[in-house]
Amino acid sequence: MSKPGQRVLAALRQMILSGELGAGERLAEIPTAERFAVSRMPVRLALRTLAEEGLLERSGARGYQVRALTGADLEGAVEVRGVLEGLAARQAAERGLDAPTRARLEDCLRRGDLLFAKGHVLLEDLEEYHDLNRAFHQAIVAASGNPAIGLALGRHEHLPFASVSALAVDADNLEREYRRFNFAHLQHHAVFDALVRGQGARAEGIM
């Protein structure tokens, strides 16, 4: 997805999560494109992605509306992902990291260190973090050597906020977002340390 598309996608997720876009509220391409000052194509892709994630549902021939979601829906989806990714981290630690996987994870950590070293973030930084966060999690799932985990995560991605790619960003409070994502990045360092040391239970607990 293009950078404008990622920006629209993250903003709409945050608006749904915060309740700014309430259950049943309609979203159409043209008004949404005008709202974010982008073309219709990134909006079309963003709306389609949100529907695949279970946050929107079709309404009419071309539109979407916000699905009614409860706190339990969101908590349950995130909890299941955490269990699956925790299992992947434990099995990866117990198997040991091969050199290519270790290098891939170290590259994600280096890129994250550079992003957060300046003490603040821009929207563009969080778009890059989205990519490296996904790469980090995918590498751990692959390193588990358990293809069933990847299949289970794939089936689970239609649930709200269950995908590792489903990051919500509040563009109006980047100071808070810096603290939130920097904390997540520090957790990545802790997970990597546990993986390298072969500490399966610790890696699982952090994930």
SSE blueprint and pairings:
Blueprint (H helix, E strand, L loop, with lengths): L2 H16 L7 E2 L1 H8 L3 H13 L3 E4 L3 E4 L4 H25 L3 H18 L6 H21 L3 H10 L17 H23 L3 H7 L1
Antiparallel strand pairs: 1-3, 2-3
Structural summary, described in words:
- The protein is mainly alpha-helical and 207 residues long.
- The chain has two domains: 3-66, Winged helix-like DNA-binding domain superfamily/Winged helix DNA-binding domain (Arc Repressor Mutant, subunit A, Orthogonal Bundle), CATH 1.10.10.10; 71-206, Four Helix Bundle (Hemerythrin (Met), subunit A).
- The chain has nine helices and three strands, in the order H-E-H-H-E-E-H-H-H-H-H-H.
- It has helices at 3-18, 29-36, 40-52, 71-95, 99-116, 123-143, 147-156, 174-196, 200-206, and strands spanning 26-27, 56-59, 63-66.
- A three-stranded antiparallel beta sheet has the order 1-3-2.
- A hairpin with a 3-residue loop joins strand 2 (56-59) and strand 3 (63-66).
- Helix 4 runs parallel beside helix 8 (174-196).
- The chain is globular and about 50 Å long.
- 32% of the residues are buried.
- The mean pLDDT is 90.
